[in-house]
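Q: Can someone sanity-check these two? First one:
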Amino acid sequence: MGGGEETKTGEEENQKSSTPFDLNDYTIIKEGEAEILMHTKNEVFYNKTQVNNRDMSVAVLRTFISKRKEEHEAQLSKRTKKAMKESEDHDSGLEAPSGTTASNGKSNGESEKMPHGEEPEAKFRGELKPPRVLEALSATGLRALRYAREVEGIGQVVALDNDKASVEACRRNIKFNGSVASAKVESNLADARVYMLTHPKEFDMVDLDPYGSPSVFLDSAVQSIADGGMLMCTATDMAVLCGGNGEVCYSKYGSYPLRGKYCHEMALRILLACIESHANRYKRYIVPVLSVQMDFYVRVFVRIYTSAGAMKNTPLKLSYVYQCIGCDSFHLQPVGRTVSKNASVRYLPGFGPVVSQECSDCGKKYNMGGPIWSAPIHDQDWVGSILADVKSMKDRYPAFDRISAVLTTVSEELPDVPLFLSLHNLGGTLKCTSPSAMVFRSAVINAGYRISGTHVNPLGLKTDAPMDVIWDIMRCWVKNHPVKAQPPEHSGSVILAREPVLQANFARAVASLSKAQAKKVARFLPNPERHWGPKLRAGRTITSKHASLLGPEIVDGILNNNNNNQEQQDEPEPKQIE
């Protein structure tokens, strides 16, 4: 196997060195500390918008390397203490009687063989190898190059693609970025699924950023990650994940989406549930550290561990969602539950149903979606570390403003509250003017519940208050701000026909503004330029119909350039006069 790899590497080097290219045919694009050569034709996929995605990934990778080192040192310290305790017991004559050494395992035998004066920690002093990173769908290789050049302590970065033009472009860009990139980054022409399956538990971090759905890569990805490693995964098929094609979402991800205001957060939770499902097949499970919805995609960062015992907790982390078709109230139904008796724990199906056939608030029917991941989608300790790192290296992140705004909002979310309410939806159901976010938050806090914003939607509010409390608050609001009468069968009329059980207190609460809001920190930023969104798949011919994606000026420039090139090719060559 080793000889084959050496031969392959040699062939790659020959290919790289023997392939000439004219710099005049390329545009140099700089992002962070990496530079790539982009051909004037749309041969290899590159999207400027994904700078937010790449910046966030660099920040998470830096924190991952730092946390991984801390965990390794803590493990070494724990082993050292254990070894020293065993050594002290041995020295004080507490070792097992002769004849029982073999049955007690190796520890006593190793203690006896330890040379005099040697520190017990010497046995456990293992060096932590630099993390190996796999970028499964590399295209231009920009992401892999940024990892290699910007992240300290990183090991080898393997960039894969099954498109020859992309691999050639990646190798060209590796060479263009100098010796550091050439030493750390290697580009291979391979099917990512096959490559990951044939390299089980070899990578500490795997990055999946496909054009569309990542579902076909997940099974092999969860197998290629080492214990405690990280999977970074993007999904851009938001129309599918947000309920536009529910049956397609079910076929790809195994969950049925609902079209509520919280659909983008539900998309995140569907993706997490899908990754967990694939991991469970190999006695593995996930621990999310950060999950974000930005621009036109969702991006999750999860750590993967192996444990048949811990895997049994998966049904406790999944829930079905019941959403009323009339008033958009929603309720969660856990898939599983546990019963503890003495020291034993039994895993049982969840109790249900949590709702009746008709909505208790407005009398309409429910739609049922899921299952979704209902456990926390962020680790607030990680989020704090990532945000602190980003702020300390402000100049090294091209999209600093955007990712720091997202991370700030994520850091203030309630971690244990799935999905969220929309003030506009509540007001729309009752046909009333919505209260301001500060007024509504104050009423919830004064009622004894918690409430926070969400990074997904500026008008979204996460709260642990049940829906009957929410509607009581809105009934009290409407009493002070009357509305026109609606038909009696209307959902809003049914809700307002009841008297509130809770008398809401709208006096301003101290915690009605988050720390970021109080300091007037920007949390939701506009797009930096027009047509900021998804781009064409590589290889597609750019025509006038793509103006909405790229902008009319860019499309006109490309079309004019193509026409000029065609005219030059059509011109007959002048005859040579001897």
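And here is the second, same format, sequence then tokens:
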Amino acid sequence: MISPLLVLAIGTCLTNSLVPEEEKDPNYWRNQAQETLKNALELQKLNTNVAKNVIMFLGDGMGVSTVTAARILKGQLHHKPGEETQLEMDKFPFVALSKTYNTNAQVPDSAGTATAYLCGVKANEGTVGVSAATERTRCNTTQGNEVTSILRWAKDAGKSAGIVTTTRVNHATPSAAYAHSADRDWYSDHEMPLEALKQGCKDIAYQLMHNIKDIDVILGGGRKYMFPKNKTDVEYRMDEKAGGTRLDGLNLVDIWKSFKPKEKHSYFVWNRTELLSLNPDSVDYLLGLFEPGDMQYELNRNNVTDPSLSEMVGVAIKILKKNPKGFFLLVEGGRIDHGHHEGKAKQALHEAVEMDRAIGQAGAMTSPEDTLTVVTADHSHVFTFGGYTPRGNSIFGLAPMVSDTDKKPFTAILYGNGPGYKVVDGERENVSMVDYAHNNYQAQSAVPLRHETHGGEDVAVFAKGPMAHLLHGVHEQNYIPHVMAYAACIGTNLDHCARATAAGSPTPGPLLLLLALLPLGTLF
């Protein structure tokens, strides 16, 4: 048992030793504040250009507590205390809050939320690309209730479009960009009930290849859902579970290839080496499926077979930006969510840090003058950290005290519920007896559940680029794609673009500024 006095003494020592010398000078903080004020005043000069490009980064499950913890981790990975570090998203000038509830759920899931921030319409839990008139699992409530996404609006406007994810490409978040399904779990026809198949509903992988046939870039996992049942996987040849799942016998990769014009250059790749060896200048369409299911956690990633999220984003942008009309790109850091569900905070936070690298990669390849970048989450998790930890305390470390009830130490990171609930000899597990810094350590939780749950609080929205100032205050989540479409002059709300063109303005800047200040009721 660790002595409470020893823990407190160590905490006091750390607190004194980890205060950077410059921070002891009041002028350090005054000068920092004045520089921040100067930058804030510059924001009065609003960017009202038309967004040629729109990039949306979606951190699945990346609530505010996850953002803060990832910031500290990023700093500590660079041998700094961590708290003072800036994430790439921290540098964005405009921040809002998004209300994440589904039409039938106070605490949402990733499908109904994806429909909101991609299609502009709130929906029921578990459904994608359909309105709230569609009930989960009921195929016969789908027809006539389909809603289209900003990816579709971008393609209709002649832009290129891409999807990059660390989950399956037919998972909840990406599927709302192209599919209309009464159930997010209908990955292939193998997962669908016979009744739904008889009623004519199609699985999500099928819809990926058929609904919008000219998505320019698709990168992620989900290989097994594209091939006939029992077809051996190209990578895991001895693993039957990695093989194809389709009951209809279709090879969707071949179908994807057949839909592409013969004069265009289309490539299917399944590993990092193939991806990075491509010359983006000679690629028109790219399909990359790097795992049978979800991609590996960043901490577990095979550097030969699996590309990182930032590498996939880099390749995607190089291909998409060739279109003179611009592009829309959806990027999902999807396994932040999975790490939290498993109670593995270290996995979740390293996923968040990698997504931040991808945000930086995208920022280096584009300009805020013509590219609107939005970073947000679909929902939060019951993840927290606290315990009066001293400055620079490892984000995965112990609090500097023991419980005044059971006299045992505890980690700063805890979950409200989840698989980390453990009782040993009738008492809470003593975490000093386990390796709480292990990659797969499951942080303690208050309530035992096999899978930790989502949280229901608002999530942050970070924005930079043309019309980013329209993301401000507290918004309904479905407001987000309306702003992105307005900024890019795509979708149905185009009056401001037409008037500016008629007035002879090459870019609708001044008029967009005027219209941006009008009440929203006059716009939609």
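A (reply): Looked at the second one. The mean pLDDT is 93. The CA atoms of residues 53 and 371 lie 5 Å apart.
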